[in-house]
Write a structure and sequence with these properties.
single chain; alpha+beta; three-stranded antiparallel sheet; 47% helix
Length: 128
């Protein structure tokens, strides 16, 4: 995915140059969109692990490349939410840690969310 995002950023710049016709606003907008897409790709390269599990709890990514440990006693619920809106369905893995809620999509984890939720529940049950 990071490579696709970087290619998309290059395509945006190329399209901006091609269709700008001397209009600096179009060129700046294309450049800003390309920079945002490139930043998203860099984040994926700098901090590729979004979710990790160990005996002490769950480690989630927080912010651009930070990490936060959620100890098992703080994890109140792990569930997969499914919503359908306008004919499109979306799945989200929710980790409820009381005062914080952590959301992950299918492309964040690169695995089926039901399997990830079951693995998290099994790891939590194994610790106590």
């Amino acid at each position: 995915m990071p490579v696709a995002k970087l290619v998309g950023a290059v395509v945006l710049v190329a399209l901006g140059l091609l269709f700008a016709d001397g209009d600096r606003v179009r060129l700046v907008l294309a450049g800003l969109a390309a920079a945002a897409l490139a930043g998203w790709a860099v984040r994926d390269l700098v901090a590729p692990v979004r979710l990790a599990v160990d005996a002490e709890g769950i480690i989630v990514r927080e912010g651009f490349a930070g990490r936060r440990r959620l100890p098992w006693p703080a994890v109140e619920a792990v569930r997969v939410e499914r919503r359908t809106r306008r004919g499109l369905s979306a799945e989200t893995l929710e980790i409820d840690a009381g005062n914080s809620l952590h959301l992950f999509g299918r492309y964040d984890l690169d695995a089926p969310l039901d399997e990830v939720a079951e693995a998290l529940r099994a790891a939590q049950a194994a610790t106590g």
